[in-house]
Specification:
The chain contains 38 helices and 39 strands. The protein is of the alpha+beta class. Pfam families: Methyltransf_2 (PF00891).
Length: 1244
């Protein structure tokens, strides 16, 4: 910049570094040095450091070699006026590094300034996160011994009976034939012979299967036996016929497996069994590049000469040595085509980078997806990629455009500001450039036709068709088109005004190559489509199928029983039928029923049915999803409400124009609110629009993301995940926007870009001095060189400059950059009508407009004096309104579309199974007496009487047979009382019916009457409280019995407690008094992201844990759990963790011990750097409001009273305990009466 004679119009010219001009390249540099300013002599050139067009560009080309050298650092510091207050030590070159001391900063930044990435691949963590519900495999084997024996027994009876019927007649017939052939029997003439028919008739009439022994000669009795025989045969025939028809006609579901199917085989199967065919993928997750290919073709201008450096260099010399005005096409065109080249390169790089990310994304399918579903999904993925890439690029571009305009950054071409120094001052004044009725203070989109002028009297020689000049080069380019450059005549005419010495042979663009765009399409319209003429996508289903690599296909279909099955079944039943029909007696034979686990037939459930099933079978219910991958927008709907200012008049163009016109009429200081008002409210409008567009774009991407679930997720888990997804969306959207904003703010300050209104740097000139010098603005003692956030209160100045201040505008500040000013300001004045009216009184009266203040009565999370930075940090959003979680779950369930649900349950054999098994077995088995155990001397009579009594309470059941009724077997309830039953119900019964508990119960009566000086437990235990008693070595048996009770309670209530609270928020978890680890094992199985759990208990209890069955049975790896011995009242023995569980612990103790236990947990974590510590108290909470049934809790409370000092407590009583120990009660979860969970936190 220079001013002729130090006064008048300030001219700008591009800086050059060597042969490189900043008008052609931003990367021009020269060695950074320190000078003696009296004569311009170089004092010292700093090794590796450069200066150039922009500070950031010169930094990127610099290196740190000087700062690895202490001597160089000391040399540099020696030229500073004052020594630094800090000790400056050189970087350590001996440290291992991927970079060299002379590596440029650009090389370092290209590697994200990271010396080394240290990945950690932990397979067991992946496996635990995968959380397989089951493993299935097939192998060739023989029938089991049980199956063989039962089948042989069933067939044996039938075969014996059949052979008994067939063999004797056959043997008799053969022997008679032999006797006739051996005997010489004289044939008597005239003897009557029976024909075969007569013999058969006689045989049938006399056939008797019920002969008496010895044979009767009573004709009446013989007749009865023959009638019984005929009835028997008829019934036998009918029964066999019915069984034959039943087994022949019933439909059975047959499952067919095809190993390693080819795609041809799969398509063939799918065409026949589309509803039931399932082909699990060997490779569940497949990269998009395995089956998708995306190619694209840019607008031809991006490969033309018009974006090459030769063309740009040609334009920069097109005016030769002539002096041209700043608005002449020959001067501005090189910048215009640099901007066009930059857009082509940026879009190409953006598309390429995003395509690499897209190709590396994973398509998840648990089983082969049919092509008619896969193809639309793949097309949707491509459409989403194109849409998200486009919107993200345009959003970034819009953000830069809006922040540039909001900060009123000065362009070196002076197309938005120019400066004039009056004769009576040393300081140039900034003036806003206007194009027609549009000025650059109110809009960056003001433009005029770009032209070539004749000098010295500037008359237009040529208006370049389609090309415009405006406030900023980018803004004018976006409104321009390439109409002239499709026309060879126009290009030739344009070149005719260029310097002849720089002629370049240029060929016009080919209009016939354009598919999507017209020659007069604006550059903005082209950029809105990422300058793409055409996208070409290829979807390769065969490659997807091969990548999926299904190892088998299974399908089911309806069919009939095979002949061999029918025959063997009838043979097996025949013997039983014959025997039963022979034993028609008045007794009812009762079959010994046994329990078995049998899968429930598949059903197609509604959500109501699923919830009903899940409430009953939460552990075994599996409902595979027909749609494994579901778009978020299918079930999540997120709405939001902006701060009211974004819909107010204060972001409208009318208000901005009103402010702009006001200060142009009068001579007002740059630092006057009336001067800065248009820029401040443009910036506010830009924030509203950018944030709205950011949230909208990110929401579109979020909605198209995939939620993957192979089977239906339970309601409580889904709701927790859905809430987490919404929270992550809000957090990531906020962080990404603020990161982009911070990047632009920092780069603007780092490059020391000049604000047009001269709010960060000013000029000063002397008469006769052509070169003005620049000085940084100061706000108080803060200089814009050191910080962009220097500020002071905004004001309305008097006509004598700002030496007098009629009004300080409440809440508004002036800073180095306009955006920085806005972020430190607030809207308190614009909530106050009086303040607005007072502000308007300083505007020119002819432009006064009635504006209404913001409404403070509207509900808002922000205060009138909340700064804009605080509001922007929350994306200016008053409220997020995600859809109701119950509605979300219903939508998810309907999208998942489970075709069936399977679960397992304990049940009795069906009546058909019992009858057919009984019929099959009765022909081939005999009853046996049970043999008593001689090693134990039982009182048989008393035992028999006890067992008889137990049949009436369902613990055993009597087995009846043909001999006696003294045989018993345990029922399912009875089996729970065995020593090896996993429920530990035996320990529970022994504990509460044992002598200690009985004694304590007796003490309750004395406690109520006031006849007992000590607690019930102390009276029974010799003066000890429960915890002290359990710690005594001589009471080891009682401790183990007590732990069995805790295990029993965990087995009974575990699943409800595990899913009632989201324990998955934590990485480490301790179960205090965890016994065998049953409850913790349930938690670790359900929440695979918990890294480690600790089972904490007394040393003698931990020593008795012989194995980790509770964990191994749930496939929980040993790296995820640890048994720790200690004392919960001794903080030094308690392991550190994120959260602690006290289940059925605190109700055993008085308040003093409870506070001691809680304090020990807090003290154990005092050295941790985490600020948050969480505990969960699982107890029988007493509710006083009547909302929850309390009878069980009160019952336990009476029991605790017998233990003395112990009690069940109300929520308020737990709150007092927690506060005494330094914790804060956060929330209470009523799980299932009488159990509740209290969550409490300690914040450092």
């Amino acid at each position: 910049m220079y001013l002729l004679g130090g006064r008048g119009y300030a001219y700008t010219y591009p800086m050059s570094y060597g042969d490189c001009s900043c008008s052609l390249s931003a990367t021009c540099i020269e060695q950074s040095s320190m000078f003696r300013y009296s004569n311009g002599r170089v004092l010292y050139s700093v090794p590796g450091m450069y200066t150039g067009c922009y500070i950031v560009e010169s930094l990127l080309q610099s290196n740190l070699k000087c700062f690895y050298n202490q001597t160089c650092i000391n040399k540099v510091l020696s030229y500073y006026a004052t020594p630094p207050s800090m000790n400056i030590t050189a970087l350590d070159n001996s440290l291992p590094s991927n970079f060299f001391p002379n590596s440029t900063l650009e090389e370092v930044i290209n590697e994200m300034m990271v010396e080394q990435f240290i990945p950690s691949v932990i397979y067991n963590t992946y496996y635990n996160a995968c959380q397989p519900t089951e493993c299935t495999y097939t192998y060739q084997t023989r029938n089991s011994i049980i199956y063989i024996v039962t089948t042989l027994i069933g067939l044996l009876g039938g075969l014996i009976t059949v052979l008994k019927l067939i063999i004797p007649p056959v043997v008799m017939f053969i022997r008679k034939k032999q006797e006739r052939s051996q005997l010489d029997i004289e044939i008597i003439e005239g003897e009557e012979r029976y024909s075969i028919g007569q013999k058969l008739k006689n045989y049938l009439i006399t056939y008797n299967t019920f002969p008496s022994f010895p044979p009767s000669t009573d004709e009446r009795q013989l007749q009865s036996e023959r009638i019984s025989t005929r009835v028997y045969i008829i019934l036998l025939t009918l029964s066999l016929a019915i069984l034959l028809l039943y087994n022949s006609l019933i439909n059975i579901t047959e499952t067919v497996n095809d190993k390693a199917p080819t795609m041809t085989k799969y398509l063939e199967l799918y065409s026949t069994y589309p509803q039931t065919l399932i082909c699990p993928c060997k490779q569940v997750s497949i990269s998009y590049n395995r089956f998708l290919s995306i190619e694209y073709r840019f607008h031809q201008v991006c490969t033309s000469v018009f974006v090459k450096q030769d063309w740009i260099d040609y334009l920069s010399t097109s005016y030769g040595s002539d002096d041209v005005y700043l608005d002449d096409f020959r001067l501005t065109s090189s910048f215009t085509f640099q901007a066009l080249s930059a857009l082509c390169q940026l879009i190409n790089q953006t598309v390429s980078n995003r395509l690499s990310q897209f190709y590396s994304s994973q398509y998840v399918s648990a089983s082969v997806i049919p092509s008619e579903i896969f193809d639309p999904q793949a097309r949707t993925l491509v459409d989403q990629y194109i849409s998200s890439t486009t919107t993200d690029f345009l959003l970034s571009l819009t953000t830069i455009r809006n922040t540039t305009q909001s900060n009123a950054l000065f362009t070196g071409l002076q197309t938005n500001y120019y400066f004039i120094t009056q004769n009576d001052t040393q300081y140039p004044d900034p003036y806003v450039v206007a194009y027609g009725n549009c000025n650059c203070s109110s809009s960056p989109k003001c433009v005029t036709q770009s032209s070539i002028y004749n000098y010295p009297d500037p008359t237009i020689l040529l208006s370049v068709p389609g090309i415009y000049l405006g406030c900023y080069v980018i803004e004018s380019l976006l409104q321009s088109n390439l109409e002239c450059f499709y026309n060879q005549t126009c290009i030739d005419q344009l070149q005719s005004y260029f310097s002849s010495t720089s002629f370049m042979d240029i060929t016009a663009l080919d209009e016939s190559l354009s598919v999507k765009f017209q020659k007069n399409s604006t550059i903005e319209a082209v950029v809105d489509q990422l300058m793409m003429e055409q996208w070409n996508q290829t979807i390769m289903y065969d490659r997807y199928f091969n990548a999926c690599e299904p190892f088998e296909c299974t399908h089911t279909h309806q069919t009939k029983n095979q002949l061999i099955y029918i025959v063997t079944t009838l043979i097996g039943l025949l013997g039983g039928l014959i025997t039963m029909l022979k034993l028609i007696v008045p007794r009812v034979v009762r079959f010994i029923r046994r329990e078995q686990v049998q899968p429930t037939p598949p059903i197609a459930p509604t959500m109501t049915k699923y919830l009903e099933l899940y409430s009953t079978y939460p552990q075994t219910l599996i409902c595979p999803c027909k749609q494994v991958s579901i778009n978020y927008d299918t079930f999540i709907s997120i709405e939001y409400t902006f701060h009211q200012v974004c819909a107010s008049v204060f972001v409208k163009q009318d208000w901005i124009d009103y402010l702009s016109k006001n200060y142009q009429v009068q001579s007002i200081s740059t630092f006057d609110f009336r001067s800065m008002g248009p820029y401040l409210f443009q910036a506010l409008n830009a924030f509203c629009e950018l944030i709205n567009q950011t949230v909208s774009n990110r929401l579109s991407q979020f909605n198209s993301s995939q939620y993957v679930s192979a089977s239906v997720i339970s309601s409580n888990v889904f709701k927790s995940q859905a809430q987490s997804l919404v929270d992550q969306f809000k957090l990531s959207t906020t962080n990404d926007f603020l990161l982009s904003l911070t990047t632009i703010r920092n780069m603007t300050q780092s490059n020391a870009l000049l604000a047009g209104p001269l709010t960060n740097y000013g000029f000063e000139t002397d008469i006769g001095d052509d070169d003005p010098y620049i000085y940084p603005q100061k706000y108080g003692v803060c200089s814009c060189v050191a910080s962009a956030i220097c500020s002071y209160p905004s004001r309305v100045c008097g006509y004598d400059g700002c030496t007098t201040t009629p009004l300080f505008v409440p809440g508004f500040y002036m800073a180095c950059y306009i955006i920085e000013s806005l972020l430190q300001s607030d809207l308190r004045c614009f909530y106050n009508q009086t303040c607005i009216d007072q502000l308007q009184s300083y505007f020119i009266s002819s432009s006064a407009i009635g504006f209404t203040s913001l409404d403070e009565s509207l509900p808002s999370r922000f205060l009138p004096n909340s700064t804009f930075e605080e509001i922007v940090n929350d994306l200016m959003i008053e409220q997020w309104n995600p859809s109701d979680q119950s509605v979300m779950y219903e939508r998810y369930f309907n999208a998942c579309r489970p075709s069936e649900c399977t679960y397992t349950q304990e049940t009795k054999n069906s009546i058909i199974y019992i009858v057919t098994a009984l019929i099959g077995l009765v022909g081939g088995l005999t009853a046996h007496e049970l043999i008593s155990n001689e090693e134990i001397q039982w009182n048989a009579d008393i035992l028999h009487r006890v067992l008889c009594a137990c049949t009436h309470v369902g613990l055993v059941e009597r087995v009846k047979n043909t001999i006696d009724d003294k045989h018993f077997i345990p029922t399912s309830s009875g089996r729970m009382l065995t020593s090896d039953h996993p429920s530990h119900a035996r320990d529970y019964v022994r504990y509460y019916l044992g002598p200690m508990s009985s004694n304590i119960g007796y003490q309750l009566i004395k406690l109520v009457r006031g006849q007992c000086k000590d607690t019930g437990f102390a009276e029974a235990s010799g003066g000890l409280d429960l915890y002290t008693y359990l710690k005594q070595p001589e009471n080891q048996d009682y401790l183990l019995l007590y732990n069995g009770v805790m295990t029993c309670l965990s087995t009974y209530t575990g699943d409800k407690l595990v899913t009632g609270v989201d324990f998955g928020r934590f990485e480490t978890l301790v179960d205090l008094g965890g016994s065998r680890g049953t409850f913790l094992a349930e938690i670790l199985q359900h929440y695979q992201n918990i890294r480690r759990g600790f089972i904490f208990d007394l040393p003698q209890c931990i020593a008795e844990v012989k194995s980790a069955d509770e964990f191994e049975s749930r496939q929980i790896t040993s790296s995820r759990y640890t048994f720790v011995a200690g004392d919960m009242t001794d903080s030094s023995t308690i392991p550190q963790a994120d959260a602690y569980i006290l289940k059925y612990i605190l109700h055993l103790f008085n308040d003093e011990i409870c506070v001691n236990v809680l304090s020990s947990i807090r003290k154990a974590n005092e050295q941790r750097t985490d600020t948050l510590l969480t505990i969960f108290i699982v107890e029988h909470i007493i509710f006083s409001d009547g909302t929850v049934s309390n009878w069980q809790a009160h019952g336990f409370d009476i029991g605790m009273a017998a233990y003395g000092g112990a009690r069940e407590r109300t929520e308020q009583e737990y709150q007092v305990l927690l506060e005494k120990a330094g914790f804060q009660l956060k929330i209470l979860y009523p799980i299932q009466a009488p159990d509740s969970i209290i969550e409490a936190i300690f914040i450092k």
